[in-house]
Amino acid sequence: MTIFLQQLVNGLSLGSIFALVALGYTMVYGIIKLINFAHGDIYMVGAYIGYFVITGLHLGVVPAIIIAMAACALLGVVIEKIAYKPLRHASRITSLITAIGVSLFLEYTMQYFMGAGVRTMPDDVLLEGVLQIGGVSITYTQLMIFVIAVLLMLLLQFIVKKTKIGKAMRAVSTDPDAAQLMGINVNATISYTFAIGSALAGAAGVLVGLYYNSISPLMGMTPGLKAFIAAVFGGIGIIPGAMMGGVSIGVLETLVAGYGGSLYKDAVVYVILILILLIKPSGLLGKNEKEKV
C-alpha cells in the first residue's frame, strides 16, 4: 500500500504536467478541429526559456514560468498566423502535415542553436526538503509543481467560463459562422486560443525541467504524444476531459513503472489510446455526434 500511495503521489505531479500540455491540444481542436502536433515542441521552447531565465537572469521559478508563458503565447500566435491561418479551409491532412513540419522546424532550430546535449537546472532553484506523511514521501519540488499546475488549470477554467474571451471561444467552438454573425471576431478568438494553450505548454515545460532536472531539444516529442493521448482519453475538445486524461495517464505511467514495468510504461499509454479508439472514440467525457449526410 505504501508503494502504491508513493507512486500515486508521483503520478499526480507528472499527470498535472501532462494535463497542462493536453489542454493546449484540446483547446485548439475544439476551436478549429486541428491537431497541433507542434504543441509538444512549444513546451520544449518554454523549458529552454525558463532555463535561461533562471541561469542567465538569476530569477526564481515563478518569474521563469511567467516569462516562459508570455514568450510561448507569442510563439503560438506567430505559428498560427504564419503556418495555420492560410490553411484554415484546406484539407485536414494538409494542416496535419504542416503541424508536423512546424514541429520538426522548432526541434532542429533549437538543436542548431543550443546543441543536442542535455542541460540541467541549477540545484538552488529546486526546493529542498521532503514532507513525510506516513510512509509516503512528497518532495517540496513535487508539491510546488502540483500546486502551480492546479492553479493554472483553475485560472483557465475561470477564463473560459467567466470572461468575455472565454465566452467567445465557446461560441466559436460551437458554431464559428453563427459567432461571426453575432459580432465575434473569429480570427482574434483563434489567436487567443493559441496564445492561452501555448502559454500553458510553456509553463509545463518549466515544470517538467524541474521535475526531471533536465531539458533537451527533443524533449517535447514523447510528452507531446502522451498529452495528445491524454486529450483523446478524456475527450478531445473537452477541457475537463483533458485535465482528467492528463492526470490519469501520469498516474498510470508511474504505477506501471513503480511495479517493475518501467520498460512498458510508454507501451501501456499507447495501448490505452488503441482501446479508447476502439471502445469509445469520443473519449470518456465525449459524446457521439450524429452527422447528417
Automatic annotation (TrEMBL):
<feature type="transmembrane region" description="Helical">
    <location>
        <begin position="96"/>
        <end position="118"/>
    </location>
</feature>
<dbReference type="InterPro" id="IPR037294">
    <property type="entry name" value="ABC_BtuC-like"/>
</dbReference>
<comment type="similarity">
    <text>Belongs to the binding-protein-dependent transport system permease family. LivHM subfamily.</text>
</comment>
<protein>
    <submittedName>
        <fullName>Branched-chain amino acid ABC transporter permease</fullName>
    </submittedName>
</protein>
<keyword id="KW-0472">Membrane</keyword>
<keyword id="KW-0812">Transmembrane</keyword>
<feature type="transmembrane region" description="Helical">
    <location>
        <begin position="12"/>
        <end position="35"/>
    </location>
</feature>
<keyword id="KW-0029">Amino-acid transport</keyword>
<feature type="transmembrane region" description="Helical">
    <location>
        <begin position="138"/>
        <end position="160"/>
    </location>
</feature>
<dbReference type="InterPro" id="IPR001851">
    <property type="entry name" value="ABC_transp_permease"/>
</dbReference>
<feature type="transmembrane region" description="Helical">
    <location>
        <begin position="42"/>
        <end position="59"/>
    </location>
</feature>
<dbReference type="Pfam" id="PF02653">
    <property type="entry name" value="BPD_transp_2"/>
</dbReference>
<keyword id="KW-0997">Cell inner membrane</keyword>
<feature type="transmembrane region" description="Helical">
    <location>
        <begin position="267"/>
        <end position="286"/>
    </location>
</feature>
<keyword id="KW-1003">Cell membrane</keyword>
<dbReference type="InterPro" id="IPR052157">
    <property type="entry name" value="BCAA_transport_permease"/>
</dbReference>
<keyword id="KW-1133">Transmembrane helix</keyword>
<feature type="transmembrane region" description="Helical">
    <location>
        <begin position="190"/>
        <end position="212"/>
    </location>
</feature>
<feature type="transmembrane region" description="Helical">
    <location>
        <begin position="227"/>
        <end position="255"/>
    </location>
</feature>
<keyword id="KW-0813">Transport</keyword>
